[in-house]
């Protein structure tokens, strides 16, 4: 069975009442733009990385969580090309391309970070898997409620190769710290001890690799705690999140004083753990609390934000802080007749 045929086995779900209301609104926009009804819907949740930052490109695991906030897509056939529209027309302009095969050209022709480029990147990736004769035009209406967004690999790669050259015969095949650990056949703590000895002359590189290896260890411990039923489960998870932030701040040096202050505020307001998160250098903070305390935690944190440094505009605070729980991953939903 080829990849295209595999897609026929994807389960099509029925939306619940809450989701149906949102899909109805998106359908109206789709019809007004394309003069036809969508054939199916897709829901793609946002995600937050609970722990495990700047270790994925080093060959180690991370621990992300799908959140409640999401992006909805209404999809239908078009005679040709790619046609995108966003429900928030006052913020995001429509995009039309007459040729689906050539829609990726806009990625190199224009440097502006238009919203539709994110979608086109996905289309370009899909086109690599789909035979050209099976491609057809598509219409897509998009609506999301994920808050607007708030690379670093060279130094850790250098550290890995310095250690590999010292300890391995075929050192040039090592590209990541994960490769290094695999070739050495050592545990994460043992690899860190080797790094400490070899990188005496490279204190900055040692700090980087120390973060990566200790963070990778924290991810494994985080997973183990999640799978347990200990009474102090959440307290232990929060402790790991705090250690992760300290490591990112002090060893990987990818935090910021403003982000550190947000973490401090969250902990002072009762969070069990808090840390920097977000793509690349972050810019967001994820905090862990219990369901019975979430309302008071959010209210206290908002008040701290409003009174700090002369006050923060109310609308900024309301948009910047939101609550979520773990949710299901991406799914396809049927249209209602």
UniProtKB/TrEMBL annotation:
Kinase listed as a keyword: yes
Annotated GO CC locations: cytosol
Residue intervals of the GHMP kinase C-terminal domain: 234-303
Superkingdom of the source species: Eukaryota
Keywords, sorted A to Z: ATP-binding, Kinase, Nucleotide-binding, Transferase
SUPFAM superfamilies referenced in this protein's UniProt entry, alphabetically: GHMP Kinase, C-terminal domain, Ribosomal protein S5 domain 2-like
Transmembrane intervals: none
Example of a GO biological process term: galactose metabolic process
Keyword tRNA-binding in record: no
GO MF terms held by the record: ATP binding; galactokinase activity
Residues of the GHMP kinase N-terminal domain: 125-163
Start and end residues of each Galactokinase N-terminal domain: 29-77
Family, as annotated: Belongs to the GHMP kinase family. GalK subfamily.
PANTHER family for this protein: GALACTOKINASE-RELATED, MEVALONATE KINASE/GALACTOKINASE
Protein name: Similar to Galk2: N-acetylgalactosamine kinase (Rattus norvegicus)
């Amino acid at each position: 069975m080829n990849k295209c045929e595999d897609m026929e086995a994807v389960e099509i779900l029925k939306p619940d009442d809450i989701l149906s209301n949102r899909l109805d609104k998106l359908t109206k926009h789709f019809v007004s733009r394309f003069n036809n009804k969508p054939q199916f819907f897709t829901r793609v949740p946002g995600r937050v990385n609970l722990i495990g930052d700047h270790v994925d490109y080093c060959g180690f695991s991370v621990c992300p969580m799908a959140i409640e906030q999401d992006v909805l897509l209404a999809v239908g056939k078009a005679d040709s090309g790619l046609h995108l529209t966003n429900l928030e027309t006052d913020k995001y302009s429509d995009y039309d391309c007459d040729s689906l095969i050539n829609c990726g050209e806009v990625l190199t022709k224009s440097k502006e970070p238009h919203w539709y480029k994110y979608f086109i990147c996905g289309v370009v990736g899909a086109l690599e898997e789909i035979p050209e004769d099976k491609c057809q035009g598509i219409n897509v209406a998009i609506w999301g409620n994920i808050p607007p967004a708030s690379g670093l690999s060279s130094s850790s790669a250098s550290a890995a190769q310095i250690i590999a050259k010292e300890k391995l015969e075929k050192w040039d095949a090592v590209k990541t710290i994960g490769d290094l650990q695999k070739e050495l056949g050592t545990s994460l703590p043992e690899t860190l001890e080797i790094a400490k000895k070899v990188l005496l002359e490279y204190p900055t590189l040692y700090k980087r690799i120390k973060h990566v290896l200790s963070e990778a260890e924290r991810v494994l411990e985080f997973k183990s705690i999640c799978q347990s039923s200990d009474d102090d489960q959440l307290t232990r998870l929060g402790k790991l999140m705090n250690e992760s932030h300290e490591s990112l701040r002090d060893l990987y040096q990818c935090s910021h004083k403003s982000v550190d202050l947000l973490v401090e505020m969250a902990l002072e307001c009762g969070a069990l753990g808090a840390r920097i998160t977000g793509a690349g250098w972050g810019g967001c903070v994820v905090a862990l609390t219990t369901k019975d305390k979430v309302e008071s935690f959010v209210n206290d944190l908002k008040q701290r934000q409003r009174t700090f440094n002369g006050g923060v505009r109310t609308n900024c605070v309301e948009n910047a802080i939101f609550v979520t729980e773990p949710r299901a991953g991406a799914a396809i939903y049927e249209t209602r007749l």
